[in-house]
Amino acid sequence: MLELEHIEKHFNKRTPAEVRAVGGLDLTVKDGEFLVLIGFNGSGKTTLLNLISGTLAPDSGSIRIDGKEVTGLKDYQRSLWIARIFQNPLAGTAPDLSILDNFRLASLRTRPKSFRTAVDRRFRQRVKERLSLLHMGLEDKTDSLVGKLSGGQRQALTLLMAVMDRSRILLMDEPTAALDPKSSDLLIHMAAALIRELGLTAILVTHDLRYAGTYGTRLIMMQEGKIKQDLDQSEKASLTPAGLVQWFT
Q1: Predicted confidence (pLDDT) per residue in 36-63, tens digit
Q2: Which of 15, 165, 217, 219 would staple 231 via disulfide (CB 3.0–4.6 Å)?
Q3: Mean pLDDT of the chain
Q4: What is the C-alpha radius of gyration for the chain, rounded to an integer number of angstroms?
Q5: Torsion region of 224: left, alpha or beta (phi above 0 gives left; psi -120 to 50 gives alpha)
Q6: Distance of alpha carbon 115 from alpha carbon 141, whole angstroms
């Protein structure tokens, strides 16, 4: 379970340009929930993900994972629980390494510093099985350089690598923003399937109202650093596309 209590985050504090990015926010995300987060630009969505991941520290408040206080932990320390996908499909992979070596690096993320993953037959087979979920034929190209792949393929790899090991919370910050419509639909569909299959707790930030209406078990709208709307699965199911659009008018 992910719990945020009375979270405050300001930028440019004590200056005329001070911005309250997140203000007194309380949020509990249960195990296995798939939360879709929407809102205007500047509403605090990405800041919230940065606070959860540890990229930013809150000015005040508490963040807990499974009851453990993690507020003071850095992002690399929280990687035992949290994996993240960003907007840029080129950011999550190493272009000069092969697909297989990228997966090896990803497998080390949640391991002790002294741990090394052997690229043996068993590991190679595990990677191939994961790649087959993409239906892109990449399972037969594990020695190919990632830099030769398309943006959509690289973002799909980033998703697979993020959920490969022990991380239980998946944060996705507009992962389709730089992709074409076909690649976007494929990535979101695959993410939803993996979240369901692996029982992950997930938060998706998106500006695409089609995805907001179709995917997830919970829908939240942020405005000026606060939660304006919060619908559970049954309430979300009764929300019409027109009703969702009205949130932004």
Answers
A1: 999 999 999 999 999 999 999 999 999 9
A2: 219
A3: 89
A4: 19
A5: left
A6: 26
The DSSP code for 109 is T
Domains and CATH numbers, the chain: 2-93+151-246 (3.40.50.300)
Q: What are the pLDDT digits (tens) for 9-24? A: 999 988 888 899 999 9
174: left (phi over 0), alpha (psi -120 to 50) or beta: left
pTM assigned to the model = 0.89
Give the angle subtended at the CA of 65 by the CAs of 162 and 11, to the nearest 5°: 85
CA separation for the pair 224, 53 (Å, rounded)? 20
What is the DSSP code string of 197-231? Answer: HHT-EEEEE-S-HHHHHHS-SEEEEEETTEEEEEE
How far does CA 239 lie from the centroid of its chain? 24
How far apart are the C-alpha atoms of 21 and 86, rounded to whole Å? 19
The single-letter DSSP state of residue 33 is: -
Residue 9 host element (H or E): strand 2-11
